[in-house]
Amino acid sequence: MDKVMNRRSVLSGPYVVWALGFTVIPLIVIIKYAISDRTGAFTLSNILAIFDPVNLKALIFSLEIAIGCTVVCILLAYPLVLAISRLKFARSGFMLVILILPMWMNFILKLLAWQMILSSNGILNMIIRAAGITGFDISNTPISIMIGVIYEYFPYMVLPVFDAVIAIDADVIEAARDLGAKKGTVFWKIIFPLSLPGLMSGITMVFVPSMTSFVTADILGGGKLQLVGNIIEQEFIQSMNWNLGAGLSVALMIFILISMTFTVKKDEREEEEAW
Amino acid sequence: MVEKLKSLLSRFYILIIILFLYSPIAVLIILSFNDSRSRVVWGGFTIRWYAALLHNSQIRVALGTTFLLAFLSAFISLVIGTAAALGIASMKKRSHKLMMMITNIPMLNADIVTGIALMLWIIQFMPLGFGSVLIAHITFNIPYVILAVMPKVKTMNISIYNAGRDLGAGPLRAFFELMLPQLSGGMISGFFMAFTMSMDDFVITYFTKGAGVNTLSTMIYGEIKKGIKPEIYALSTMIFVLVLVILMIMNNMPAKEKRKGEEERGNVYD
Fold first, then answer.
1. Option in B111, B120, B251 nearest A246 (CB)
2. Which of A165, A28, A72, A208 lies closest to B118 in space, CA to CA?
3. Chain B partners of A26 at a C-beta cutoff of 8 Å?
4. What is the 3-state secondary structure of chain B?
5. Hey, what's the torsion of the CAs at B264, B160, B76, B141, to 10 degrees?
6. What is the pLDDT at residue A265?
7. What is the pLDDT of residues A77-135, one digit of tens each?
């Protein structure tokens, strides 16, 4: 048996080579760029540039957008998951279809459509003005960026949470009800704790891309509001300062790593408490 | 009464979310029938953008590149990823953990960082082009395949494979006929996930593509300032309808199988 297992691990050979060649080495290369200047001499100034006022402002703005979007996604996702799990055809993949289908429409086109919906003389304002309300305009504001980001990543929050909730044994919930638990208690003591692994992967999949979706900020922010992703993109595409771009990327990576270990640690603690 | 109201309320909520998810898509579908190049003026109903689509070679090339890229990267990822899942599952605890950590890197890293890191590395040994984009897509697709196949590997029954070997099946035949079929569910969802991710990607393609190559995403991004050609709306509408049909067909098939599986499991308890 042991021999079969050992021989089987050979199968991962191609992947080990691939992961080394295209996941690990590129990270080393970007770090090498980040810690050297144009002449190749060692410097930390590219990474520390994240503390320049302009860059720091973008980083903080990204953080605000990312936290805001993650929270809104969680708040929108749970009622949806619970509502769908009540339906008779919940398990039939209905949820999957309505969430995955929009992903097949090109995301830049969808952002342009949102731009048309949200712009000052767009569809939303036409409706609102028809209702007699004036002076309402969210085009080119952080809110319109958030709508775009939430739209993009909402499915990544719903799907893992849905998978976790639908996997909960119905008997457990019924037992709790039989023993007199109210609906709120059932949610907070059973459904929510058991959905935590799904919630955690949802948070990861929404939080990280929210910080860097520079196309969304470009299209829905009117070009004035910058996420840290916009700054990095400009260093590469316009300023052609690759070392600085790499430095900011590495700074971003370190930042995300720190905030992620924080969430994961918290997650472990909460899971212990739940049991 | 309260129960009924709650059920009505939850249906209403689902409807609101669907409205949120589909309103921009509705806008794009309407634009594909708009007889005006402007995005804000309704110029009457037309299907001429659908006809124009057939003659637009730029879109055709980008569409071909996008699908070829999605298919090749998903297929290569499927092969490497399935083998990797089988291998990693049989590793000792420490190397197993290390490999899963490396697998998580492309999924946890911001796309922009992954794209830039790959670009900075690849330009050192080959020019950017279709090849570099393919490498990049395979790199971010393999983890999806591994994560989809791994649960199946962990629950697969190795005795079936061993029994086949004992009864005289060669290792290859036993592998393809007795082991792989047990993984097929995970392999199919891994392949489709990889295909979708590749189709949907913009950022990583943008940084690794070089000058000559365009997928639909990068072509559309390049056209934002000049104005989007209405043919693109027509194409997107067609892809959307096609995927809708495919998803509906697929969704009806596994549902039946699953129900059958559940009944069988039910019998065990009886």
1. B120
2. A28
3. 114, 117-118, 120-121
4. CHHHHHHHHHHHHHHHHHHHHHHHHHHHHHHHCECCCCCCCCCCECCHHHHHHCCCHHHHHHHHHHHHHHHHHHHHHHHHHHHHHHHHHCCCHHHHHHHHHHHHHHHHCCHHHHHHHHHHHHCCCCCCCHHHHHHHHHHHHHHHHHHHHHHHHHHCCHHHHHHHHHCCCCHHHHHHHHHHHHHHHHHHHHHHHHHHHHHHCCHHHHHHCCCCCCCHHHHHHHHCCCCCCHHHHHHHHHHHHHHHHHHHHHHHHHHHHHHHHHHHHHHHHC
5. 50
6. 59
7. 999 988 888 776 655 567 677 887 888 888 888 998 998 888 877 778 878 888 877 77
Residue A17 is assigned to a structural domain of this protein:
no
The structural domains of chain B, ordered by start, are 60-226 (1.10.3720.10)
- What is the domain-level CATH number for residue A125? 1.10.3720.10
Within a domain: A150: yes
Within 10 A of B56 (CB to CB), how many other CB atoms are there? 17
Q: What is the CA radius of gyration of chain B?
A: 23
The CA distance from A256 to the nearest CA of chain B, in Å, is: 8
∠ Cα A142 A148 B62 (to 5°): 135
Does residue A4 lie within any of the structural domains?
no
A60 is a domain residue: yes
Q: pTM for this one?
A: 0.85
* pLDDT digits 0-9 by tens, A183-227: 778 888 888 888 888 898 889 889 988 888 889 998 888 878 888
- Which residues neighbour B98 within 8 Å (Cβ) at sequence distance 6 or greater? none
Cβ pair B90:A246 closer than 8 A: no
CA distance A211 to A50: 14
SS3 call for A42: strand
Q: How far apart are the first and last CA of chain B?
A: 36
Q: B45 pairs with which residues across the strands?
A: B34
From chain A, pick out residues whose CB is under 8 angstroms from the CB of B27: 113, 116-117, 123
Helix axes B180-200, B130-155, angle to 10 degrees: 140
